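User: Can you help me understand a structure? I only have the sequence.
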Amino acid sequence: MIRVLFIHNYYQQSGGEDKVVKQEMKLLRQYGVEVSLYSVHNDIIKQMNVLQKVKSFVETVWSYSQYKEILWILNKEKPDVVHIHNFFPLISPSVYYACNKLNIPVVQTLHNYRLVCPAATFMRDGKICESCLKGSLLNSIYHRCYKDSFVYSIPVAGMLSVNKFLGTWKNKVDRYIALTNFAKKKYIEGGLPADKIVVKPNFIERKTFFEPDINISDEYILYVGRISIEKGLHYLLEAWKHIKNKKDIKLFIIGDGPNREQLMEKYKHLQDVVFLGSKSSDEVIVYMKNAKYLVVPSIWYEGFPMTIVEAYSVGTPVLASALGSLQEVVRDNETGFLFKHADYKDLANTIEKALDYKDYGNMRGNVKNVFEKNYSEEVNFKLLLNIYNEVIKEKYDNGK
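Assistant: Let's start by predicting it. Here is the structure, written out as C-alpha cells:
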C-alpha cells in the first residue's frame, strides 16, 4: 500500500479544514494506507516578537526555512505522495518546491479560494467580490482584504503574484482537489490548469458515538455554524420574524462568533428563537437528527459546509442559499429547498413552504440516498486512492 504525507497549517481558530484533515487521515489508515502528518500552527505567531513577525510576513511568499524543514521530513518519511491541505501562511508555497526537488507527486486540496482571492472568501463589505479574480491583486491591498489591514494584505497579494509569475500553481502541483464543480470553475477562471483539477467532496465518517442525554421536546429547524456576517444568520432571524404561521416550530441556533451578542440583543423579543451556544460534535449530530430542517443562509461562496454532510448523514433535509456551491450540494425540491441569498422575504417564504411540504418523508429518504452515493467513507476512499495512484503513475511515467 502507498505511503502518504499530509501537510497542514492550522489556523488559530479551528474550522472545517482541520476536521477534514483528521477524518481523511483516519479513513486512509482504516484501509491500510500509511499516513503521516507534518503540521504547523498559527498560534506561534502570538509568541513572535516584531522582527520575527516581519520575517514571517516576508516568508509567506516563499519560506526557505520551511523548504529546508520539509526536505528533511520528506527524506525521513519517504512518502509516495504528498497531500497538502493548507500551506498558508507559515509553510508557504516553498513546500511544492521541496516535493518537486525529490520528484514526489503533490496533491493540493482547495478548501477555500486563497489561490485566487487574498481574502479566500470572494467577499468584501458583506457582499460577493471578484475584483481580484477579474482584475488586479492590487485591489486587495487597496481594500485591505486580509485581516482588514493594508500591511497584512501586502504579503498575501505578493505571495499570489510572485508564485503566479514563477508558474508555481501551474507547474509544481500535480493535482488539485476542488470540493464542487462551482469551485472548480472559479479556480479555472483564476488561472489554475483545468486538466489538473478534479472534484472530490468532503465526507463524514460513520461512527458509533455515545449519544448525549439531551431532552428535546420541541419541534425546530436548526442553524449550526459560526455567527458572523458571511454566514447570513441575520437574514435568517429577520426572515423568522416575518413568518406568519410557524406551526409551533422553534428556531435553534448552535454556534458562537463575533455577531452573537448583537443578534441575541436585537432579536430577544422572539420567544421561539433559542441560542444554544457551542456544542460538542456528538451533541450537534443529535440536534441535527431531531431537526425538521437545517438552514444554511450564507451570503458568500461557501467551500463545502461540513454541516450539510452531517445533516445528510442523519437524513435531515437542508434549506440553503441559492449561491455558489450550495446550489450544487442542496438539490431543490429533492434534498431540501433553495432560496435567494441575502433576501429575508424569500427565505421566510421558503421556510413556510418547507413546513407545509407534504412529501417530507420521501425527502428524508432522498437525503439518505444522496449521502450514501456521494458522501460516504467508501465512496470518498475510492476517489482519494484513485487520485493518489494517478499522480504517482504520471510522475513515474514522466521520470522514465
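Now, to help you interpret it: The chain has two domains: 3-203+377-399, 220-374. The first strand starts at residue 3 and ends at 10. Let me know which part you'd like to focus on.
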